[in-house]
Amino acid sequence: MIGKIKKGKSFGGCIRYVMGKDNAEIIDSDGVLQGNIREITDSFNYQRELNPKIKQPVGHIALSFKPEDKALLTDEFMAKIAREYMELMGIKNTQFILVRHHNTDNPHCHLVYNRIGYDGKVISSQGDYKRNEIATKLLKNKYGLTYAENKGKTNVEKLHASERVKYEIFNAVKAALKHSKTWKEFNDYLLRRGIRLELVKRTREIKRPEDIQGIRFTKDGQTFKASQISREFSFARLNARLGWKTSETQQESERKVKQRIPDGGHLFESTGPGLFSPTNGTAPEEPLPQEELLRKRKKKKKKKRKGFGL
Hints:
This protein has helices at 11-19, 37-48, 75-89, 128-143, 161-179, 183-192, 226-229, 235-242, 250-260, 290-307; strands spanning 2-8, 25-30, 58-64, 96-101, 108-114, 196-201, 212-219, 222-225. With 310 residues, the protein is an alpha+beta fold. It is elongated, with a radius of gyration of 29 Å. It starts with a strand and ends with a helix.
């Protein structure tokens, strides 16, 4: 998902463009008559007169998605995402139409809105590009949408060795995510393709997700940090899809993780039994109940007394 932002002077020209494509359809709107292009344009122009000093009252944002997300993007879902995007962008209390196009492989829609709100105040465009970047990232992460990267279409044979390996890892990880619901399935898929997954630890032992600093991938003797492959593959993002819930008790999480990840330390630099388990392969000792502690202390005192002949 990406957003391309434009501002303009003429509602007529913008409306003719977005409505003039084959199969263009309005999938959401507010405050606009929809009889024909003329009525839509007039609706916007009447409201712009509330603040005629603004020279560029036309707000136009194209929201484009990757072909991989096409099956998810019904008109209703696309409109829902667009509404949330508008909220994040601060586009509120104003007229808009959301027009979907079907003329490319990338599902996309055009948001046309009046920068003059119902109260006559202008909707600021300051910081739009930064807000747009943040908003699209939040929505992609929230709904699991595909990031706009073109690595999958790259001709890897023409790349240098290190770059070729990066692209091979990228493609393998993307495929693994499509076929995996757990860390074990994810790890097994990569191993079958000759890729080793390593976790970089913050602490000596891994007992919870916060103890993991990052991820590395190794293939053909070359190792790369996850960020060198794609920003999509950070530990936090992968764990959100495959991982361990922090609300689980330690014992429950260890039991579940042992089912997810095979023994043998495939996921560790320094070998370990499994994700979030201690690196020496032994389970942490459970604290003794208070009664058991008192009983043991009494036994020790009795032994000491016998030793002194008391």
